[in-house]
Amino acid sequence: MLFxxxxxxxxxxxxAHRDQSATPPAARAGDSVVLSPEQLANSGIKSxxxxxxxxxxxxxxxxxLDYAGLRRVDLKTPTESIVAEVYVKPGDRVEKGQRLALxxxxxxxxxxxxxxxxxxxxRIANDAREFCERLSLNLDKLIAAxxxxxxxxxxxxxxxxxxxxxxxxxxxxxxxxxRYHLTRKVAAAxxxxxxxVVSGNVALERKxxxxxxxxxxxxxxxxxxxxxxxxxxxxxxxxDFSAHVATITEQKLSLLLGGNAELMSAALNSDMxxxxxxxxxxxxAVEQREAAPSQxxxxxxxxxxVADTSTLWAIAEIRDRTWQALSLGPGDTVSIQAPALGNRxxxxxxxxxxxxxxxxxxxVPLVIxxxxxxxxxxxxxxxxxxxxxxxxxxxVIVPTSCVQGSEKSPFxxxxxxxxxxxxxxxxxxxxxxxNATITSGLEPNRRVVSEGSFVLKSVLALEQRDKESR
Length: 470
Hints:
By secondary structure, this protein is α+β, with helices and mostly antiparallel strands. 35% of the residues lie in helices and 30% in strands. The chain folds into 4 domains: 1-55 and 392-470, conserved putative lor/sdh protein from methanococcus maripaludis s2 fold, CATH 2.40.420; 59-71 and 309-389, Elongation Factor Tu (Ef-tu), domain 3 (Beta Barrel); 79-105 and 274-307, CATH 2.40.50.100; 112-252, no CATH class.
């Protein structure tokens, strides 16, 4: 079963193939094995049908594993700080938002105090805006009540709006209305007296007083409405400005901390006002830790490296002999062979192909995403990228597990009928992944043993030993 993998490993990715004109030696007497039904049931032998097809040739390109895309983040201090506590170590798995360390920073404390002040000022300004809007609304109600028919008495009007917020407009408008109401009543009473009882001059004077009082009242109403509108607009502008200032300071604090920090919940009088946490940007593992308790660090100092290594990039170097691989595109599959894992072959998917040839290596990078859920691979590990190099002529294809023996003397076991097998010498051409092309010695549509060949080889070896001992 290791036949194909041995060839792949020893050739470092250059797949060996034999001359298709070569012919295997004829089967010899004694190469057949017959198993009893009981032996067959316990042998675990399985067979497959040899098919006709093509195997793509491959070339092996050197590659190294690296972190995938943006799934690696260096967490640095946003400002001069002191490390108070550290909660993780290299290799620890972390979830998104998990706290990694607690730090203290005077700059953060000052900015938080400034933000708290500006938020308080914004609340005060907003309260002022609401009060001015309420005053303007109440003033409109008061003016509407004064214009009722019949006109209300000043005393009744004053009592009706006694508990309604009117501020200075209560005095300005109600006083003018009371004077106008009184002069109107006096003038009306004068006009109702029989002629000759009151001189004409007195009647004219009282009518003039009424008109003057009415003008003062209407002027007071217009001035009050204008003042109320202006006051509401200024209060609204002041509230909006205060809110914007608080928002800008909040954004300044957020930008200073970055997206990978979390402020502690702290009141203004708390000792933790200047404290914050560094948190994991996403689920992954702690790859590096430079933070230590009580350590004083400058702004921009590296404290942690967090990465998601469930998927890694295999970055292959494409040169002249593997130039055909540049025809690959995103989504195409590529086999990756990992020497550190016993030449284990993994399947990767092309993420992207570099657009520029390196001036130092004369290579173009081919980036292949490789699944690493078992966490067996590490960034920096050397691998081979098995890249397509063309297709061989059609031949008989079987799984590599069917091929037994050595490179110089390969063979397969043919299934003549269930329980009866024959050893057949073959010539092996191209091997790619789990498939091998048989160029001679095997016809298509023959059943070939794919599992349990060890039993058949053991039976043949025992028969050969018995012959030699006779």
